[in-house]
Amino acid sequence: MGKVTVPLLRSMKGEKKITMLTAYDHPTAKIMDEAGIDTILVGDSVGPVVLGYPNTIPVTVDEMIHHTRAVARGIKRALLIIDMPFMSYQESIEQAKRNAGRMLKESGAEAVKLEGGVAMHDTIKAITEIDIPVCAHIGLTPQSIHRMGGYKVQGKGKDVEKLIADAKAVEDAGAFMVVLECVPRQLAKEITEMLTIPTIGIGGGPDCDGQVLVLHDLLGLLGSFQPKFVKQYRNLTEDITNAVKEYISDVESGGFPDDSQCFH
Ligand code: KIV
């Protein structure tokens, strides 16, 4: 399997589904890359998922670079995308270009992702014009949590037109791919058919050109709450709890270490 590139992903639209997962550390990225994932996203979900923040708002550019460098060292094939965190691109086009450039230079990522549609048109255009590939993200945009008042399905009722305008705007601005988060299935299908760039769904249904999930959701590492769009493939919370309990019990009973774990 050859290296995944931006042109390759674009050419996969309508031909082959694109797979994407999040990663935040070196060993996990290496496992996912060797398993054949197409794209790895170091999402700003690193904040709530591994840093214990309440949401993605506090995540910084330095934190994103720190985690992405670790992930980059584990990848040979997948395309690596880094999320631009809140207020690293919204202030001005100059700020957005400076941070996108720094994030690519210092992290090893090959593309950036940022949230927003029509409002981010000129920003996406400016970043792509300096040859930094941009993956857009519309629908439920977690950095807008306070405006939205929670993590809710977008693109219903009067918001349908807004979402379609957002999708057209990011394509027109030069984004090479767009994430559709928590969008009704039929609307995600229509947007996918309307655009020439691939759509990646997370709560967007099966008609998108590809799918993304947060790895910790897929592995059952985030406790009992599951968003509706998640398919939990394993329950590692249970596995880790049982392993740690066995270790405690072995140490306390003298069962670990035994002679095979000793030097002679
Ligand atoms: O930050 C993230 O992990 C994301 C994905 C859920 C798309 O934006």
Can you tell me about this structure?
The protein has 264 residues and is of the alpha/beta class. The protein has eleven helices and eight strands. The chain has helices at residues 6-12, 26-35, 46-51, 61-72, 93-107, 121-129, 145-148, 159-173, 185-194, 215-218, 236-253; strands spanning 18-22, 39-42, 79-83, 111-115, 134-139, 177-181, 199-202, 210-213. Helix 6 packs parallel to helix 8. The longest helix is centred in the C-terminal third of the chain and has 18 residues, at 236-253. The termini are far apart. The mean pLDDT is 96. The protein binds 3-methyl-2-oxobutanoic acid. 3-methyl-2-oxobutanoic acid binds next to loops.
Q: What are the secondary-structure elements, in order, as H or E?
A: HEHEHHEHEHEHHEHEEHH
Poorly predicted runs of 5 or more residues? none
Sheet with most strands: strand arrangement: 1-2-3-4-5-6-7-8
Query: Termini distance?
Result: 45 Å
Would you report the number of β strands?
A: 8
Which descriptor suits the 3D outline?
globular
The Cα radius of gyration reads 20 Å
Q: What's the average pLDDT? A: 96
Percentage of β-strand residues: 5-15%
Number of helices: 11
**Bound ligands, named by name, code or SMILES:** 3-methyl-2-oxobutanoic acid
Helix content: 40-55%
Overall structural class, as computed from helix and strand content, comes to: alpha/beta
Sketch the major β-sheet.
8 strands, parallel, barrel
